[in-house]
C-alpha cells in the first residue's frame, strides 16, 4: 500500500515536470494542510474579513498549490513539507493579493519598521504616494524617496523594497517582470536608488527623524 509520504513524493515529482493533473490531485489531497497555512498567514495580516470569506480562502488555497507547483523542481524529499518549504513564497503571494491592514502602534520611534509610531504596512500593492499619505510622519519619507531618480526608478525601487519586506524570495525577478528589465538591472536600480535616498536623509536636517528608522539607521 502506498503511504502518504510516497504519494506526496510522487505528486511533487510529477509537478516538477509540469504535470497539471498532479497539481489538481495535490490540491485535493492536501487541501487541509494548505488551508492551515493560508489561514495562518491571512490572520497574521490582520485580515479576519478575508478569513471569513470562504470563496476568497478557497481561491488563496488554489493559488498556494500553484505556488508550490511552480517551484516543485526545487523541493527535495526528506526535508520540510512543501507547504512549509514554500511558506515564504505563499505568504508573499497572499500579501500581494490581499495586503496587510495598517496597524497603528505606540510612540516608540526606535521600534523596528516604524516612523513616528506608524507601522510600516507590508502591502505589495501599497504605492509610495499612498504610503506617504498614511500618516503625517511618513510624508518626509515620501519626499525623500521621490527627491532622486527617475519616476521609473522610484517605482521599481519601491516595489523591490516592498516585495522584499513581504517575504518575496526573489524580489529582483518580480520587479524585472513588472518593468521589463533583467533581474540584475532590478537589483542595481534598487541599490542605487536606496543609496541616493539614504544620502538625502543624512544630508538634510529636515529628514532627521527618518534616521531612526531601521532602513536608514547608521
Draw up the topology in text.
Elements: H1 4-16, H2 20-29, H3 31-44, H4 48-51, H5 54-71, H6 82-85, H7 87-98, E1 114-115, E2 118-119, H8 128-132, H9 139-145, H10 151-165, H11 171-179, H12 183-203
Oligomer: single chain
User: What are the secondary-structure elements, in order, as H or E?
Assistant: HHHHHHHEEHHHHH
Distance between the termini: 60 Å
Average pLDDT level: 81
Helical percentage: 55-70%
State the helix count.
12
The total beta strand count reads 2
Tell me about the biggest sheet? 2 strands, antiparallel
The rounded Rg comes to 20 Å
Gross morphology is elongated
Domains counted in the coordinates: how many?
Answer: 2
The stretches of 5 or more residues where confidence is low (pLDDT under 50) are 100-125
Describe what you observe in this structure.
By secondary structure, the chain is mainly α. It folds into two domains: 95 residues, Rna Polymerase Sigma Factor, Chain: A (Orthogonal Bundle), CATH 1.10.1740; 99 residues, no CATH class. 61% of the residues lie in helices and 2% in strands. The protein has twelve helices and two strands, in the order αααααααββααααα. The chain has a two-stranded antiparallel ribbon. A hairpin with a 2-residue loop joins strand 1 and strand 2. Helix 3 crosses helix 5, helix 10 runs antiparallel to helix 11 and helix 10 crosses helix 12. The longest helix has 21 residues. It is elongated, with a radius of gyration of 20 Å. The protein starts with a helix and ends in a 15-residue tail after the last helix. About 12% of the residues have low confidence.
Amino acid at each position: 500500500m502506498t503511504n502518504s509520504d510516497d504519494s506526496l513524493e510522487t505528486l511533487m515529482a510529477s509537478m516538477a515536470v509540469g504535470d497539471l493533473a498532479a497539481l489538481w490531485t495535490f490540491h485535493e489531497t492536501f487541501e487541509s494542510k494548505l488551508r492551515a497555512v493560508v489561514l495562518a498567514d491571512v490572520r497574521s495580516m490582520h485580515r479576519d474579513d478575508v478569513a471569513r470569506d470562504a470563496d476568497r480562502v478557497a481561491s488563496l488555497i488554489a493559488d498556494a498549490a500553484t505556488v508550490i507547483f511552480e517551484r516543485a523542481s526545487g523541493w527535495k524529499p526528506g526535508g520540510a513539507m512543501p507547504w512549509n518549504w514554500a511558506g515564504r513564497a505563499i505568504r508573499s503571494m497572499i500579501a500581494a493579493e490581499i495586503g496587510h491592514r495598517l496597524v497603528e502602534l505606540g510612540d516608540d520611534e526606535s521600534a523596528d519598521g516604524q516612523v513616528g509610531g506608524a507601522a510600516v504596512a507590508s502591502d505589495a500593492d501599497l504605492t509610495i504616494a499612498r504610503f506617504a499619505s498614511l500618516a503625517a510622519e511618513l510624508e518626509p519619507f515620501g519626499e525623500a524617496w521621490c527627491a532622486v531618480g527617475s519616476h521609473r526608478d522610484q517605482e521599481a525601487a519601491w516595489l523591490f523594497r516592498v516585495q522584499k519586506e513581504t517575504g518575496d524570495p526573489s524580489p529582483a525577478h518580480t520587479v524585472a517582470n513588472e518593468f521589463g528589465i533583467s533581474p540584475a538591472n532590478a537589483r542595481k536600480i534598487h541599490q542605487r536608488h536606496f543609496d541616493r535616498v539614504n544620502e538625502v536623509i543624512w544630508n538634510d536636517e529636515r529628514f532627521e527623524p527618518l534616521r531612526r528608522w531601521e532602513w536608514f539607521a547608521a
